[in-house]
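Running this now, will post back.
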Amino acid sequence: ISPLALSLLSVSRVWLQATDTITVNSPITITPSLQLDAGNAIIINADITSLNDVEINAGRSIQVNDAKIKAKNITLTAHASITNEEEFAGGDPGEFLNDIGLLNLSGPVGTAYTNAAAEVLINASAILEAEEAITIKATAEANAIVNALGFVLGIAHSDSTATATALIKGGAQVDAGGALKLEANIINTSHA
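Update: finished.
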C-alpha cells in the first residue's frame, strides 16, 4: 500500500481487499474506519492512524512489526479454515473375502488429512493504541472427514491438526482505553 491519507467526511469505511497478501510499508492516516482483508497474510511495517475503527482480517497470518496502530477500536483477526471430506464406496462383504475367508487388504480405503494454522503476532517494537477496545484473535479450523457410502467393509483414516497463536511479544506496547481481548481458538474435527 502506497502512502494513503484520506479525510473523506462522506465515507464511513475504507475497505482494501486482496486475495493473497497485503503489506503496509508506508504510513496510513485516515479519517473513516479502515478495513483490510487478505486471503493469506497481512504484514504491517508502517503506522496506521484512524479517528474511527481499524479492522484487519487475514486468512492465515497477521504480523505487526515496527509499526503503530492508533484508532478508536482495533480488531486483528486471523482465521484459517481447511476442510477435506472424502467419500469411498465398496460392495458387500463378499468382495473382501477370498476363498479361505481372509480379508482382501487391497480393498477400499478412504483417507483425509488437514492442517490449519492461524497466527496474530504483535512483535516487540509494535505499538497498539485504542481509545476503546483492542481485540486480537486467531482461529484455526481443521476438518478431516471420511464418509463410507453404502455397506462397506474397508479401511478409513482421518487426521487433522489445528494450531492457533495470538501473541503479544515482550516489549510491545498495547494500550486499550476499554477491554483488551486476546484469544486463540482451535476447531479440530477428525471423523472416519
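Residues 18 and 43 are 12 Å apart (CA to CA). More later if anyone needs it.
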